[in-house]
Amino acid sequence: MAGIAVAALTVSGAMASAETIRWARVADALTLDPHSQNEGPTHTLNHHIYETLVGRAIDGSLTASLATDWGISEDDENVWVFTIREGVTFHDGSPMTAEDVVFSLDRARTPPSGMAALHAAVEEVTAVDDTTVHVRMSGPAPLYVQNLTNTFIMSKAWAEANGVETAPNFAAGEEAYSVRNANGTGPYVLVERDPEVRTVLQAFDGHWGDAPAVTEIIYTPIAEAATRVAALLSGEVDIVQDVPVQDIARLEQTDGVRVVRGPENRNIFFSYDMSSDSLASSDAEDNPFAKPEVREAMALAIDRNAIRQVVMRGESQPSAAPLPPFVNGWTEEMDAFGDPDLERAAELMAEAGYPNGFSVQLDCPNDRYLNDESICQALVGMLARIDIRVDLNAQTRSLHFPLIENWETDFYLLGWGVPTFDSQYVFDFLVHTREGSYGSFNGSRYSNPDLDAKIQLLSTMTDLEERDALIAEIWDEVMEERIFLNVHNQVLAYAMRDNINLDVHPENQPKMTTVTFD
């Protein structure tokens, strides 16, 4: 594809049949294991192969999937009851039962599963019969079902036969049969897998749902933005999920191309090691990020509007709060930010003991978020104005994420979606002390036992007004501590042939089962 002419102005070349979709995006799924990694592109591909108990519609509402009904038990407020869909089969032809659901939920909630924090309040999962599952919580948990939209159900027998009873540790580079092979109940069967090159899926004839219009998916990661767009213009691919912001306007004016836009339920931010005595990548003898004056100075140095205008070409929503407006707990007050104040930032640096600044390495992905490396480059220049000398280390996300999970980075960029549409998801993964199921992406090493206790209370609070008040209290402390240096909320654009209909999904998880053709 490197030889495709970028200057093409109209869609040309071979056209795919109405049954085949050739789908390209910036990066591949990190793994096919359904519980190993809690990461957007990984979930997006796996949603075509595996299924969850409940789904998430375009409007954010929950939909029935492998569970046809769910609710809190009338006899015990600590128990969730799920009615499991009958007549569902795995791709190997074996029937799905409640035992598979029990196995999958237990697997997902057991570290090193990347999904464990979502199920931290679960005490026990039991199969009452072939179609009924009870999930006992540590207390009343009225919002637990919201945590299940990315927890996939897999075959217990298949997992046992292939030695993958527990999820492989992605951060440690652990290999397992489930990393490259799959056996789900989803609408598509895996027929070919060449990681980072090509994945082919075909419609599953035995699926319980309506047959999709798309009967074959050819999924191709294309890291280079210009090559990705050129592939669409030449007719080599049909849908581009990650449209570069600099190409949106041109594509909107191109014959034969349709561009669909919408806000994403995802926030982009920087964070830093706040707890270590010193930083491995810095010339400072101590840890500058441990000092609140330095964190405030950095907040005063960042120019979010400039990033929006220059880096994102207007395609972002600048914000100070590390959660999108979709999410329960978001307020306009916490989202507000002022203009940069370099004079005050310099004063704060001197007060903290760094009148001549310090050096540090910034770790950044270059193939995960819209213009991620360019955002990092912009921050490097902005921090230089207050004498923070940043060495940028940009690399593929498969190398970047383990740095955060293994506490091997001093300073990093991360994007975070909130599939539960609730602030607790942010707190559980990013704020809570890293222990047990909690804090798997808390790369800041922030630890506050009092705040941890408040976060854990959220899972089992039944008075939602009281719960929202506690969420606000937690956010007040998080924002005051400046655990995150927030940049913006992402805005998405999908580009496709103009006879294809596909809406932007707020989770950036388009499903090819929803595609229709004109």
TrEMBL record:
UniProt name for this protein: Peptide ABC transporter substrate-binding protein
Q: What is its main location?
A: periplasm
Pfam families, A to Z: SBP_bac_5
Q: Which domain of life is it from?
A: Bacteria
Record-linked Gene3D superfamilies: Dipeptide-binding Protein, Domain 1, Dipeptide-binding Protein, Domain 3, Periplasmic binding protein-like II
Q: Does the keyword Protease apply?
A: no
Quote the cellular component terms of the Gene Ontology held in the record.
Answer: ATP-binding cassette (ABC) transporter complex; outer membrane-bounded periplasmic space
One annotated GO biological process: peptide transport
